[in-house]
Amino acid sequence: MNNSIGMDEETLERILERRSGIRQGTGLSNVDRSLKQMYVQGLQIRSHPDQGTTVAFVVSK
After folding, report:
1. d(CA 41, CA 1)
2. pTM for the whole thing?
3. What is the rounded distance in angstroms from the CA atom of residue 46 to the CA atom of residue 3?
4. How far is CA 11 from CA 5, 28, 29, 58, 61, in A?
5. Strand, coil or helix: what is 40?
6. Separation between Cα atoms, residue 12 and residue 6, nearest integer Å
């Protein structure tokens, strides 16, 4: 469980953006990219300021 306050769309896009050679302090972009390579779909992230963030990943049978 995470008790973050959520983030706006611009912040979420910046976190997921892959910048070669620049470390952003988060592994979300790496996890998302790896999941897309292995399972075609990546993380499903919903976030709203002052409401929180939900991250999900669904694996089909």
Report:
1. 23
2. 0.64
3. 14
4. 12, 13, 13, 23, 33
5. coil
6. 9
